[in-house]
Amino acid sequence: MATEDAAARPERAPDGQAWWQQGEEPDYRATLANERTFLAWTRTALGMFAGALAVLQLHQLAPFPLRLALACYLIALAAATTVVGYLQWRTRQGRMRLRRPLGQSPTQVLLTVALLALGCLVAAVVGCASR
């Protein structure tokens, strides 16, 4: 699948065109829907960044090392969400321009696993705080 995505995202076509100039302009509704999806990924990442800052401010919740670990995990997850959101937008936009199927991505499964791990980390922090 990685080679299929890479093939859908060439930086330059053989004729020297950039990816956003290749193929034909997709229907504007599909382009706007793709952009809204990218913005949703970005909002999710901003929420995670805000959560990281909030966790650091909760002094009575847990000791600083646990709060720092939770905040760092949230920041790393937010950064990864931002990058994945852009890559998904870029891949899908390129595929729409070339009239190719949008394809599948394991991203949702990976994000689910990462959020489950976050839930476990939060439970551990709250469990330590209740002792």
TrEMBL record:
UniProt entry keywords in alphabetical sequence: Membrane, Transmembrane, Transmembrane helix
Membrane association type: Multi-pass membrane protein
Membrane-spanning segments: 38-56, 68-89, 109-129
DUF202 domain mapped to chain residues: 29-93
Source superkingdom: Bacteria
Primary subcellular site in the record, as a coarse category: membrane
Family matches, as InterPro entries: DUF202
UniProt subcellular location: Endomembrane system
The protein's name: YidH family protein
Annotated source species: Streptacidiphilus cavernicola
Lineage of producing organism: Bacteria, Bacillati, Actinomycetota, Actinomycetes, Kitasatosporales
